[in-house]
Amino acid sequence: MNKIRMVAILLSLMFVVSCAGNIKTLNDMNPTEKAVWMLSVYNAQYEDYKFQAARVDLDEERKAVLRIKKQILTEVYPLISVYSGYAGSGIIPAVDLETAIIKNLERLLYMI
């Protein structure tokens, strides 16, 4: 039993270490990888928005933050769709489009 547990822990640690070596920054990602990153951030923020909006004990300040978050989510989704379409077809997306998406995603990530 202890050998099995030790092997499982060792394999888990090896997996974590091997994955940690593959972390890329946005500057190192190609357009397809950036599109995946953008969609994953968007989806996580959308799920957080739905969870927060479903709460019944929200004060007015939190409601105002959620309204802004909804507006940003609504505005950034079409931009991410266009970016993903370009990346998927092999076209390099415009830098302005990428900058606008990243700026909006950063606003979502740093909201209280």
Molecular structure report:
With 112 residues, this protein is mostly helical. It has one domain (24-109). It has four helices and no strands. It has helices at 2-20, 31-53, 60-88, 95-109.
The overall number of domains is 1
Number of H/I helices = 4
Major β-sheet profile: none
Question: Between the first and last Cα atoms, what is the distance in angstroms?
Answer: 46 Å
Question: What class, by secondary structure content?
Answer: mainly alpha
Mean pLDDT: 86
Q: Which spans have pLDDT < 50 for at least 5 consecutive residues?
A: none
Main attributes?
single chain; 112 residues; mainly alpha; 4 helices; flat
What does this entry show, briefly?
Helices cover 77% and strands 0% of the residues.
Fold blueprint:
Layout: H1 2-20, H2 31-53, H3 60-88, H4 95-109
Helix pairs in contact: 2-3, 2-4, 3-4
